[in-house]
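Table S2 (continued). Query chain:
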Amino acid sequence: MSKSIQKGFTLIELMIVIAILGILLAIAIPAYQDYLARARASEAVYAAAPTKLAIAEFRLSNGRYAATWASVYTAPPNGHGKYVSGLAPTGVAAFTVTSQNTQCNGGEPVFTFTPQAPVTGATGSVDWLCTSTNTVCAPASCR
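Corresponding output:
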């Protein structure tokens, strides 16, 4: 009797490896898509930073919030970005940031930023409350 030495993998071993890879990819691809959508939506939160700074600076310098939106906000000359469609005032110092092209489940999120400081008085910092119309894609700070 002669013994043959096995070289390579058998067909069943290769099929098992492919099945394991298929299961892992079926789980990983949707999770990665959700991750990308949340990352795109978070650009809207970062786009709000200059406006939040301008509103807080005006309040701390003048002891009140600005009476008009135009006195603290100037639209960027090149638009808001690939994933941000615009900013709009919603109150005395509150504003919304609308996202676009994020591919979030449940629609494009709209983030509302509201200052948590008294209307008058120049003492203390201005903290912001962030809420979102789509909590699935919202960063943890806006849920």
